Amino acid sequence: MKKYILTGLLVWLPLAITIWVLMNVVGTLDGVFAWVVVAAQTVLPESLRPLLQDLRNIPGLSVIVVVTALWLTGVAVTNMAGQWILTQSNRMFSNIPIVKSIYTSVKQVSDTLFSSSGQAFREAVLVQYPRAGAWTIAFVTGKPSGEVAQHLPGDMLTLYVPTTPNPTSGFMLMVPRADVMALHMTVDEALKYIISMGVVAPPPSAAPGSLPPSLPTAGPTTQS
Fold this sequence. Notes:
- The chain is α+β, with helices and mostly antiparallel strands.
- About 50% of the residues lie in helices and about 15% in strands.
- A five-stranded antiparallel beta sheet has the order 4-3-2-1-5, covered by helices on one side.
- A hairpin with a 7-residue loop joins β3 and β4.
- α1 packs across α3 (about 60-75).
- Mean pLDDT is about 80; it is low at about 205-224.
């Protein structure tokens, strides 16, 4: 009896969690969309208010609106006029007290993480943490820069070490490149490995010794 119940749980649990997450996301978007509709009803002519109310009652419409808005924004900023508007809006937000510190920080992080030319979270690696002999998976986010780089010797890498099973929190490490071992698994495969606490291991994708050229095989590790 217990065996069959656990087997059934393993079948339905991933689907149930997926549906729960999607319903929460859609519910949040519907709530924001409803707030926007209510705000629009106060400024638009009374003849349009019944139409807005009907749109508000359509479930899932907020997802289509958000995706369409993101697509139109992406199309708009690819031309010269859109770039000018984006530059002016960035300049405006960067000059507002308090807002500029939050906006600038979030923009720098998002530009680094989601830029197609950036290297943040493009490689999964192994690093010894929290002590010598204990290995964990980390993601390369770049190289130390600014004042920090001036105080660090040699070739260093900045790593993000996620926690398990919640990878949205973690630790930032700056370690010598020679102490990092490159992995052939993709970032998605590494995240699955972390979230599953090592249960869902990706298959080997390359022969040992043929590591990516961007990161060398880890040599002798020195711990300070």
